[in-house]
User: Fold this.
Amino acid sequence: MQATLPSEAILDSVRMRAAIAGMADQRGKIARMLESGELISLRRGLYASRRDLDPHCLAGPIYGPSYISFETALAWHGMIPEGVTEILSATPKRTASFGNDFGRFRYLAIPKAVYPVGILRITDSDLPFLIASPTKALVDRIAREPGFRSMADVARWMEGMRIDPGIGIDREELSECADGYGRPSVRWLLRYVGKNKLTGS
Assistant:
């Protein structure tokens, strides 16, 4: 008996069991589909049915709630010049990481209070995905830096990261994040942005 896969690009174990419900050896069938490449394992109990998917689209389904952020989002927005070899995401849950045929996916914990701020939904891709705004990506990344005591520390960090200051920063969003994070590095970033007038139009 031949299984007919649902049309979705991403399938969980419930959808897979429904698709092969009439088969006696369901576990063996899934194993054979994985071996043949008809299915691609994303993590335990989650599969992709195509190999041409944009990895950004897979980050949320693999581990959620989450949104793409940190260096991955900074590069996506053109705020840093380098490409990023793994997909970095923010989550209010515990830190986690997964590897599969599409690449490496790492999830870093952030405070629940700031999680909803500055999330964009991108729809012009294989599947919709969530990504931090330029401001939120910058905040998420700098919040991981310890020992900031002045705006000079922010300036040195921005230079070291090769952050493009030409991309406007949303000061209201940054202020909300500074309150929620409670991190010195974010508070100094807020002062630095105000002093250097890096806010968007």
